[in-house]
Amino acid sequence: xxxxGVWTSQRQIxxxxxxxxxxxxxxxxxxxxxDEVATVFGxxxxxxxxxxKAIASIMAMIGTEQIRANAAKIPFDAKRSVAxxxxxxxxxxxxx
Length: 96
Description:
The protein is mainly alpha-helical. Helix content is 60%, strand content 0%.
């Protein structure tokens, strides 16, 4: 909604909705994770804020298209650790 011009800042969203700025920032970070990437972790509802922040850092390093391409190569595996999934999303190589 920031992009659509409904609100001009995260602070304004927080005030208007009666939320903390931290809560708004967390929800925005989670919303910015591409669906393909969230699927690696079992879907958006399974992502923690820490994981969403790590994904944002990876996207800043390698780009959104590359992280999406890497995500498309790896199916969800409930037994895979978050650390291994993040490493794969970064490198495109599945750690052993």
